[in-house]
Write a structure and sequence with these properties.
Blueprint lengths: L2 H4 L1 E7 L3 E6 L8 E5 L7 H12 L6 E8 L5 H10 L6 E6 H10 L4 E6 L3 E6 L5 E5 L11 H12 L5 H8 L4 H6 L2 H10 L2 H25 L5 E6 L6 H13 L4 E3 L6 H14 L1
Parallel strand pairs: 1-4, 4-5, 6-9, 9-10
Antiparallel strand pairs: 1-2, 2-3, 6-7, 7-8
């Protein structure tokens, strides 16, 4: 479906401090824009309204809007956000960012996706459209194997060397989660160079992510080899990703790994087009 034929079809991918917005045109390459945003999802409506005003979009013109957001999983949370966004489009649908990432990575194929960025989650779905997840509970009680987890474990390990001041600076930063997660590339680089503490931390993060993948696959009873893919800044590191693939195999999962086919925001825009044409 083209945007011109039935109205504009928009996908939005909501991250920590940015929103990616894509307009579906039916083309292989979907133009996207990135706008800054507050981490507070309550501000999302006003940010999108500003974009709508600049583009002279109205509810009548936008046929469908699909928002893929961090920090949402329960139906109640998604429905509440969709209700607040109802003035922006004739049809509004909200999904988790991990669901959009899986749809972008594998399309409609059943399978699972491991996401490790600032936070982490494993998400999967089966041929009947049933979803399952492991992790994704945030930095205080979850996010095992994430960038934040790597940074936090590194700070804990290096405090024994008398680096308490550096740890306190990170903990008391204006955005401590983001500050601590920013240490992940350093941890990965040290591990790759042979630092024993960093290697132990990285190996444990890969084991935890693989355990989440095993739980999702068992929950959905996905048949091997399971279609699998990845997302997130930590897994953009090829060395870390190779180690994770090995950890998944050691966890007893036979997987067929796919490079992500398209970005989550494009998957959200494509889903908006499907909604508009239904």
């Amino acid at each position: 479906m083209s945007a011109r034929a039935g109205g504009v079809c928009v996908g939005a991918d909501v991250g920590g401090t940015w929103i990616r917005i894509a307009v579906w045109t039916g083309a292989d390459r979907v133009p996207t824009v990135v706008v800054p945003a507050n981490r507070d999802l309550r501000e999302l409506v006003s940010v999108l309204r500003d974009v709508w005003r600049r583009r002279r979009w109205t509810r009548r013109r936008v046929a469908a809007l699909v928002v893929a957001s961090r920090g949402l999983w329960t139906p109640g949370e998604r429905q509440a956000l969709a209700h607040r966004l109802r003035g922006l489009a004739r049809r509004v649908h909200v999904v988790s960012d991990a669901q959009a990432a899986l749809l972008g990575a594998l399309g409609r194929q059943p399978g699972m996706l491991i996401l490790s960025g600032t936070g982490s989650i494993v998400v999967g779905w089966d041929a009947r459209g049933r979803w399952a997840r492991a992790g994704g509970l945030g930095p205080f009680v979850g996010d095992e194997g994430s960038g934040f987890w790597l940074g936090r474990e590194w700070l804990r390990a290096t405090m024994r060397d008398g680096r308490l001041r550096a740890t306190l600076r990170a903990v008391h930063a204006p955005d401590p989660v983001r500050t601590i997660a920013a240490l992940a590339p350093t941890v990965l680089a040290r591990a790759r160079r042979g630092d024993r503490r960093a290697r132990r931390i990285v190996a444990e993060s890969q084991r935890l992510l693989a355990a989440g993948a095993r739980d999702v696959v068992r929950s959905l009873k996905l048949r091997p080899p399971v279609n699998a893919s990845w997302a997130g800044s930590v897994l953009e590191n090829p060395w870390f990703r190779t180690g994770l693939i090995r950890a998944v195999a050691r966890a007893g999962l036979r997987a067929h790994w796919h490079r992500p086919a398209e970005r989550p925001v494009v998957a959200a825009a494509r889903l908006a087009a499907e909604m508009a044409s239904a």
